[in-house]
């Protein structure tokens, strides 16, 4: 990939305590984002019972935050490239926290859906800004690990959110899940306002841009439209489209596996306990996948590991259903599948910021993440349509296994001849 506006001395400086503080804060923000995004999934049954919602209405509530995340990732990018990563990250936290807080007083499904959309927009902005800020604050040697930790933090937040939501939902009611999530998010925003520092690469770029504008006042190259156009120039479009489509396929597969595996196992004759256990095992494997990618990327190359994860996952996906009847094999297959899926997501999140220059980095990462989020949105719909067409569970897993091979080809195509890939 092309993608490095290198500041002499910045990338070669060892990671000081201030850099780790920023990375740690970004991890905290991702943990909280994971909790916020999953809040509706953990309270959906209670909300549905209280308001007597139809399946379609509940589905809209569950998907609202995903749609918001796609919009937030897409819209925040150019503004973060113009105003800075830190302001957009803090704005995203404020929007998410306030929307979660107001959800406590939601009188009906329509208003709650709007607030879930706004929560998603804030979350999408945070994910993009935190990814790029981590990339630009980390030293080159620790960069892969630092970004992979962000992916692990989001998964950790989703898991912790489940524990918190279950405790509050059963004791005081679903509204308090949103109240607690909003207060925690706003508290994190306050901490960020005091301790978070802007990227040095962006500050130098911003200074150069102001100097250029003082000489050429009519320059408009920082407008959002020009940022998006820069992603599809002859030298850039290949990496933009390849990474975006690869993440779309990967996220579609991830959400299919995480959402449908327990249900499909039950529909194919396995007990509800066996289906639930398979879902838990996927999460257990996923928690370690991102960490493994981060630790091994410097040694073996991020893009090589990513290709290996995608191809191996395409094989294991075809074994989930046949292995379900053998407890020992089922445990291994589910854990490794979760590991590979989350590790591959962490790998793409690591490659994305390397594909773009500093001036368009957040815009590019935002487009890639927004496209990936579309995969998460359409995946349950595609699976449902195919089930209605009498596809078996094995047919569905084979279908999504094939999508991982296509994703691997897209990653290979985006990295072909790229200097950034050869060094990552």
> Considering the protein shown, what is the CATH homologous superfamily of the largest domain?
MFS general substrate transporter like domains
- Computed CA radius of gyration, to the nearest angstrom: 21 Å
Mean pLDDT, to the nearest integer, reads: 81
Beta strands, count: 0
The name CATH uses for the topology of the largest domain is Growth Hormone, Chain: A
Query: What is the number of helices?
Result: 16
Any low-confidence stretches, pLDDT <50, length ≥5?
A: 2-8, 10-14
Number of domains: 2
Biggest pleated-sheet summary: none
Give helix and strand order, one letter per element, not per position. HHHHHHHHHHHHHHHH
- From the spread of the alpha carbons, the general shape counts as globular
Q: Termini distance?
A: 10 Å
Helix content: over 70%
Q: Estimate what percentage of residues fall within beta strands.
A: under 5%
Which structural class do you get from the secondary structure elements? mainly alpha
The CATH class assignment of the largest domain is Mainly Alpha
Which architecture of the largest domain per CATH? Up-down Bundle
């Amino acid at each position: 990939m092309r993608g490095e506006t290198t500041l002499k001395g910045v990338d070669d400086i060892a990671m000081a305590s201030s850099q780790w503080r920023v990375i740690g804060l970004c991890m905290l923000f991702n943990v909280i984002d994971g909790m916020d995004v999953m809040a509706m999934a953990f309270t959906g049954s209670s909300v549905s019972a209280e308001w007597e919602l139809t399946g379609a209405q509940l589905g809209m509530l569950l998907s609202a935050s995903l749609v918001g995340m796609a919009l937030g990732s897409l819209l925040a990018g150019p503004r973060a490239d113009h105003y800075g990563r830190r302001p957009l990250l803090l704005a995203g936290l404020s929007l998410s926290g306030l929307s979660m807080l107001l959800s406590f007083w939601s009188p009906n499904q329509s208003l709650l859906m709007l607030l879930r959309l706004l929560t998603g927009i804030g979350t999408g902005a945070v994910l993009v800004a935190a990814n790029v800020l981590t990339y630009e604050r980390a030293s080159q040697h620790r960069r892969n690990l630092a970004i992979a930790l962000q992916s692990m933090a989001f998964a950790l937040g989703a898991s912790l959110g489940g524990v918190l939501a279950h405790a509050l939902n059963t004791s005081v009611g679903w509204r308090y899940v949103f109240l607690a999530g909003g207060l925690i998010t706003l508290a994190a925003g306050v901490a960020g306002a005091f301790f978070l520092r802007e990227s040095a690469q962006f500050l130098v770029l911003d200074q150069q841009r102001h100097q250029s504008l003082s000489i050429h006042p009519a320059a408009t190259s920082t407008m959002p439209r020009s940022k998006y156009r820069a992603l599809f120039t002859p030298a850039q479009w290949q990496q933009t489209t390849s990474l975006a489509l690869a993440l779309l396929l990967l996220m579609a597969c991830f959400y299919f596996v995480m959402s449908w595996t327990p249900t499909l196992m039950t529909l194919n004759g396995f007990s509800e306990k066996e289906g639930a256990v398979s879902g838990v095992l996927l999460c257990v494997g996923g928690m370690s996948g991102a960490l493994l990618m981060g630790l091994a990327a410097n040694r073996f190359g991020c893009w090589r590991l990513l290709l290996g994860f995608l191809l191996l996952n395409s094989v294991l996906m075809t074994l989930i259903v046949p292995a379900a009847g053998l407890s020992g094999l089922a445990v291994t297959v589910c854990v490794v599948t979760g590991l590979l899926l989350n590790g591959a997501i962490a790998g793409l999140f690591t490659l994305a910021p390397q594909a773009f220059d500093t001036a368009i980095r957040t815009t590019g990462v935002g487009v890639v993440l927004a496209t990936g989020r579309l995969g998460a949105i359409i995946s349950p719909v595609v699976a449902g349509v195919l089930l209605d067409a009498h596809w078996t569970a094995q047919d569905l897993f084979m279908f999504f296994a094939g999508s991982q091979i296509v994703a691997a080809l897209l990653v290979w195509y985006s990295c072909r001849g790229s200097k950034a890939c050869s060094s990552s």
